[in-house]
Amino acid sequence: MKLIQAIIKPFKLDEVKEALIELGIQGMTVTEVKGFGRQKGHKETYRGTEYQIEFVPKIKLEIAVVDSRVNEALEAITRAAKTGSIGDGKIFVTELQSIIRIRTGETGEGAV
Amino acid sequence: MFLYQLHKIGLCFSMVVIFGALSISSACAEEIAKINEGNTSWVLTSSALVLAMIVPGLALFYGGMVRSKNVLSTMMHSFISICIVSVVWVFWGYSLAFGPDVSGIIGGLDMMGLAGVGPEPSEGSTIPHMAFMVFQLMFAAITVALISGAIAERIKFSAFVLFATLWVTLIYAPLAHWVWGGGWLAGLGELDFAGGTVVHISSGVAALTCALVLGKRSGYGTDNMSPHNLPFTIIGAGLLWVGWFGFNAGSALAADGIASSAFVATQVAAAAGALAWLGVEWGYRGTPTMLGAASGAVAGLVAITPAAGFVGPVSAILIGFGGGAICYLGVFLKNKMGYDDALDVLGIHGIGGTWGALATGLFASVGGGTGLFFGNPGQVLIQAIGVGATWIFAGLGTFVILKIVDALVGLRVSKEEEVLGLDLTQHSERAYG
Description:
The complex is a heterodimer of chains A (112) and B (433).
Chain A: E1 2-8, H1 13-22, E2 29-35, E3 42-46, E4 49-53, E5 56-65, H2 70-81, E6 89-95
Antiparallel strand pairs in A: 1-5, 1-6, 2-5, 3-4
Chain B: H1 2-19, H2 22-34, H3 37-65, H4 71-98, E1 101-102, E2 106-107, H5 129-147, H6 157-180, H7 184-188, H8 196-214, H9 230-249, H10 257-285, H11 290-304, H12 313-337, H13 345-363, H14 378-409, H15 415-420, H16 422-427
Antiparallel strand pairs in B: 1-2
Helix pairs in contact in B: 1-2, 3-4, 3-5, 3-9, 4-5, 4-6, 5-6, 5-8, 6-8, 6-14, 8-13, 8-14, 9-10, 9-11, 10-11, 10-12, 11-12, 11-13, 12-13, 13-14
């Protein structure tokens, strides 16, 4: 099992969600986050006073998937979240040791 | 109102029939002629419109521009200004401004507690003295509230309460007397239709003095101090615009042609101010901003204030346009000079008011005023004297008041309180969540 954490542009959330639902992914967790990468924030101007906003709003999307489906999930996220311009985000994949479904107590792949 | 008038006339008529006494009927006719009901209702409505400029107008306009930890304290400054001034105005403020003239400098104390200010019109007026008094009360209140933008996010609440009380008494009342109460500037023939010098220059210059004496907010220039809620500010600017019709067209003190002319001048100057600010910003910075449009509209409104009843619509557009462009430079100047007039009271009200007062001397052509462009070059000089006197008096007077307040209660909150925010440390409240 793998935990996929994707940092994406906020306006791409719906497309990414649709793409994952089409694959049959059954759940996801979404958080509003702030950060920067090569995009390095943006400038805001209020009555001529400029502020460099280093941390740009992003969405962090987390899903747990069984090993056999990791590649297609990554492909779906990449395809849906891509605009081609700087700031499209990143996807992190980590090994997932265990999962427990709280309601039933199921563990392992059955709980994904 | 028409029906009411009919009813009154009918009443007079029946009295005549019943008593057959001509004297009673002429007394009724005289009363009807004395108080003009149209004028009275317009001035009362205008008074309420000016109140709406302060709360919620200015409270939202300023409240949206500060950081979220200071929004309540900033709104409180507008709110408490109207409360303090309302009481001061009744006890002694109105009398100092509009009481019998003492050497052209100040009004006498004969009207303290509104003695002699009643439902009947004062001499030469068509509205009840009470209506005139309450209209002027709102002007005094908004002037004090305007200053608060310069000292936002760092002044002690107790200091502001004391400052507002002293300032309306010692600075506003004399200034209002000079121009509208039969004082020396009125004698010179200064044209100030609705308060370019009395309200806008005085508050703008007081704001600069406050910013210099209080010093910068901690973190100024390094911390992000961007507005926390621009929609508040835009709604506030919209309310200011609406209320300004009471402010300017109400200053005709009649529901007549001058009021209509001032109404139109107000509308087009605000629009031109917004367009000018946006244009300069777009050209210079590359993006037109919503805050810029709102600021420009307010700048246009400030600029047209002294001229509103004295100029035609094309002149009004030029004055408004100049206001928007010049005030953009005024705000730009702050960034260069480095004083922390937090919400640009000098940049918009001080600079815009100065431009408007001088422009009145250029463009005046109707309502009893004649400016340079219409054959009266002397008017510009008179306007310049009014502007200079207001700058000096408001600047020095505010400095003295700040020193007194500092000695009595201290002006600034501690650095720790400033970092925590004024809402929590001055009022034990939080605005959001």
